[in-house]
Amino acid sequence: MNRMGMAERAGLLYAPTCKAEQNALKGMTNGSVITRPYPGMFARAPSWDALTVSERHLRMMRTLARMHPDWVFCGPSAALVLGFDVSNSCMHRLHLVCSGEASRRNTASVMWHHLRDMKVMTVGGMRVSSAERTIVDCMRWLDFSRGLAIADSALRVCAKDQDWLLACCHAVDRRTYGLRQAKLVAAYADARAESGGESIARAAMIEEGFSLPMLQVEIPDPLSSTPHRVDFLWTLADGRWVLGEFDGREKRMTRGKDAVDVLADERLRESHLTLGGSVVRFSWQDMRNRRRLAHLLTAYGIPHEREPRRFDLRPLDCRKI
Fold first, then answer.
1. Among candidates 12, 18, 20, which has minimal Cα distance to 37?
2. Which of 196, 201, 258, 268: disulfide with 149, CB 3.0–4.6 Å?
3. Which residue stretches of the chain have pLDDT < 50?
4. Using CA atoms, how far apart are residues 151 and 196, in angstroms rounded to an integer?
5. Are 86 and 141 in contact (CB under 8 A)?
């Protein structure tokens, strides 16, 4: 247990090299004391349960990087290391590069990819595909909403513009499978999106055919000199504003305040915002139910620009990513 605790403090999983110890720990994985997140790797269940999905993924990656220093992470796994917004649903598996002509069998834990002409960089002791290649691979492998979340955050983290993102696509061999999907996502990417949730919400609006809002706009407060910044803003044909707010988990962080005070601040802020226009709020539940989101936006007068259509070209089976 002491060695397991030391591994945890180093941000790693405990990976015993002795087969007998591995078997002994495996027999103790009842879910309440010890857990085995990855074959041959163990952690104390309470500590593991306290981690977020991304923290767990990074902990597995750091452990594997120590065990296999020649391995290279790619796709969503590399994107996570690079600080991009990766959906939890992309972290069911680790994504690794299969070197040369070698053949590796995919497992429930790992998906292997053959990638040609790929540059490699080291971040936090982990070897990953270059930022440019990582972004393109994510955009071509993932569905539209998850790819857009990574593309938006990549522009923000790398301090680049959309032209750079499109150039990343053009730098890849034009015969690369899924490149059309990558270019489609890149055409809608916007660095002003501040969270993956906002990007996924915007992807839903795009696919449902709604008029696209302005992002992260500062709205003057009629009752004070301090402006308020909103996630989305539409200006309707009659000049009225509709302000959109995404209620993601990160929005509810208290930053040291009492939860009641946070709620009171939000109510006061919204009462001021409604003096200049109506406010529509939507959540993860709304985005999971596209019909519900469409009804909500339509009720607030957000116009359609075209008929709804799915933008997923499905270059890979996204359910397996």
1. 12
2. 196
3. 250-265, 268-269, 271-272, 318-319
4. 10
5. no
Whether the CB-CB separation of 192 and 200 falls below 8 Å is answered with no
What is the DSSP secondary-structure string of 49-69?
A: HTS-HHHHHHHHHHHHHHH-T
Beta carbons within 8 Å of 250's beta carbon, 6+ residues apart: 195, 197
CA atoms within 13 A on the CB side of 153: 26
**74-94 tens-digit pLDDT:** 999 999 999 999 999 999 899
For 74, what's the count of Cα atoms within 13 Å in the CB-facing half-sphere?
A: 25
Q: What is the C-alpha to C-alpha distance for residues 118 and 134, in angstroms, rounded to an integer?
A: 9
User: In this structure, which amino acid lies at residue 181?
Assistant: Q
pTM for this entry: 0.86
User: Are the CB atoms for 85 and 196 separated by under 8 Å?
Assistant: yes
Report in angstroms the alpha-carbon separations of 238 from 9, 218, 248, 277, 279.
58, 20, 30, 12, 16
Task: Concatenate the DSSP letters of all residues of 234-263 into one string.
Answer: EE-TTS-EEEEEEE-GGGG--TTS-HHHHH
3-state helix, strand, coil in the chain (%, to 5): 45, 20, 40
Parallel, antiparallel or unpaired: strands 277-283 and 241-247: parallel
Alpha carbons 122 and 52: distance in angstroms, whole number: 23
